[in-house]
Amino acid sequence: MQLKHLRTFATVASTLNVTRAGERLHLAQSSVTEQIQALETDLGVVLFDRSKRRLHLTEAGRRLLDHAADLLSLADEARSAVADVAGQPTGSLTVGGLETLCSSFLPPLLMTFCTAHPAVAVRMTTAGSGELRSGIRSGDIDVAFVFGEGPPEDGVEREIVAWDRLTVIVPAGHQLAGRDAVAPDDLRDEPFLVTATGCVYRRMFDTAFPAAGAGRPRTAGEFDSIGAIRALVAAGLGCALVPALAVAPAAGLAVLPWVGDADSVPVSMLWRRRRVQPPGLRLFLTSARKGFCAVRSDDDHHPHAERFR
Q1: Is the dihedral angle over the CA atoms 219, 224, 227, 228 positive or is it negative?
Q2: Distance CA 124, CA 216 (A)
Q3: ∠ at Cα 284 (282, 287), nearest 5°?
């Protein structure tokens, strides 16, 4: 049983989609299929039920999946032990994050890490919070960055590395556009654009404006993309509550600090718990902790600058 076949199996099992698994593994769909077939031949069992429109694990597949993460983790630990002796870390590192963090906060950290450790091949992927957590658990993603603390998860380490202020964005011509900051009473019955229930950005809105609270802004529409919400606010459709990191300078927008009870949101770093961390991951975690502090250390306007660490 080859480890590369087992890793491909675990990725297909986590996505139940050969095309998506191929994208994560940087393999052609035909190569993914060939590796799964080779593993099935080696084990003498069928791992996936292909009789329906979507793949399903067979009983044999479910049993193998129970052991796959442990086997792959042991292989990574063995590779890490050898790499420690060799000195210079090598291998690959997959960094995941919400689109907002990947486009604004992570690039400086990745540049610093890649410059210091050029032998480590780094890949960055964007996804929603749920998919990022799933990728951490399956081993497809080595370290991920999300907004919010989130619930404890078995086998997943979590550390708050920064806090980002919340802001209210309004159309440039809005009556509040000239304010230094806005509070809940300023937004009574204002139309707000939000993401769908369950999304981390929607939780920020619901926390800032409890459903039972008086004067809660009215929801003018739900949208899947923070980028779309920014554009629609600039067009005059309504207002929105977003982290400061999600707001790039743009025509048609006014950005106002939010001074409600929940005025900031944590940025959390997630990684899978292992007995021995791969050298590349260990070095990246250290670099990220220092980098988050350095990236924002000169941000005098951040109300929680002293909380960055």
Answers
A1: negative
A2: 38
A3: 115
Residue 309 to residue 299: CA distance in whole angstroms: 13
CA distance 291 to 297: 10
* Mean pLDDT of the region 102-125: 90
For residues 122 and 113, the answer to whether their CB atoms sit within 8 Å is yes
Taken as a whole, the chain contains a residue count of 309
Residues 6+ apart with CB under 8 A from 223: 193, 194, 195, 229, 232
* Structure confidence at residue 92 (pLDDT): 85
**What's the rounded Cα separation, in Å, for the pair 207 and 169?**
17
The token duo for 47 is 């791992």
Please check whether residue 124 is in contact with residue 95, taking contact to mean a CB–CB distance below 8 angstroms. Answer: yes
pTM: 0.70
Q: pLDDT digit string (tens) for 9-43?
A: 998 988 888 888 888 888 898 999 999 999 999 99
Cα Rg, the chain, nearest whole Å: 22
Write out pLDDT tens, residues 138-160. 888 999 999 988 778 888 999 99
Q: CA torsion 302→145→110→104, rounded to 10°?
A: -50
Structure-block tokens of residue 93: 């590192």
172: its two tokens: 């440039």
